[in-house]
């Protein structure tokens, strides 16, 4: 039979690594984790015909079972008057009977049973299958980046006191939730300056996770360098491409006409400078990254636009129950029928407009399976030829809950015009106020 084991880490693996795809290399230590693996024991037990298990483990388990079934009998003693003292209790002790032999001596009363090891597989209980706590405590939340990344701050805001799990790629965060390594994932989907993060929209369509919430955070960039380094010593600045673009004018105003080099993420850039002791290189990252990697802040709040905000979505294996007593947002994705093309978009927008449902986002992406649609122009009375049009998949966010009848009717009408339709999630809107000063957010993976 198969058993699921939670294997504690060895002393050599206390510095656990990020969740990574098979070809990725671990980047940064994180909290102590457990390895979940499935094993199969094909050995046949020598004690019971047809039993399955390892030999020594079965022997120890069998001894433990026998000891629990040992019949006991009280030693034959002449009747004595009832007495509540210690002498009476010492005269009435139990002697085990094993295989029909009564141990009359004190030596025979001792049964030396080797205890079964505590590492034996335990059956799953209802607690193992219970949903994770909704308040965020002890939740395992996957995010893309390394500790100190803006995405980590978004995960902390979405689920306070959670156990944040860094992942080196966006897809690794999706897989972490699907494989039960994490309970939630917090990933960016759009930035107010950089626009949509198309990679995550494609992954939303490829995977079967559900959006259960959103978080909006402002970007607050800092210029970081090794302790004792002055701005005059810098010859280059590294960070995420969007972070470099968002700080371009401020860097020039600071007199830093140096080379700009792109890096995977902002916190990863700070880690790289600190790990390699680069005296001539600065990184654009968060103030938390400076604390984690022992760097100094040369300049604080260097983003060109103080209104720079990134929107994250929270993903889970199961959707939440929509409600109508608070502001909700619903995200859908659909594709048009053949030969309708983008004309279906007008019909979809009309379905929402007639019911006074506001749209907050419309995003189109080329259809991955059918990127090109061929159409004979001669059928439309024009010069003969074959026109090639892109086939699109549309992502739409609208301000309504699936619990509202108007949203249900609108989606029923939308499905009449589409060849593919899917609800990505119906979830509460992020209504918390935010300030552009000293706050953490993300731009794409940053």
Automatic annotation (TrEMBL):
The record's section on PANTHER family has:
AROGENATE DEHYDRATASE, PREPHENATE DEHYDRATASE P PROTEIN
Q: Where is the Prephenate dehydratase domain?
A: 140-317
The organism is Canna indica
Its main subcellular localisation, reduced to a broad class, is plastid
Sorted keywords for this record are:
Amino-acid biosynthesis, Aromatic amino acid biosynthesis, Chloroplast, Lyase, Phenylalanine biosynthesis, Plastid, Transit peptide
Superkingdom of this entry's organism?
Eukaryota
Respond yes or no to whether keyword Cell membrane is given for this record: no
EC number(s) from the headed UniProt entry: 4.2.1.91
Presence of the UniProt keyword Chloroplast in the record: yes
A Pfam family it matches: PDT
Q: Tell me the leader sequence span.
A: none
GO molecular function annotations of the record: arogenate dehydratase activity; prephenate dehydratase activity
Which residues does the annotated region (Disordered) include?
A: 70-93
What are the subcellular locations of this protein?
Plastid, Chloroplast stroma
Q: Return the InterPro entries for the record.
A: ACT-like_dom_sf, Preph_deHydtase, Preph_deHydtase_CS
Protein name as it appears in the record: arogenate dehydratase
| Gene Ontology cellular-component annotations | chloroplast stroma
What pathway is it annotated to? Amino-acid biosynthesis; L-phenylalanine biosynthesis; L-phenylalanine from L-arogenate: step 1/1
In the record, biological process GO terms are: L-phenylalanine biosynthetic process
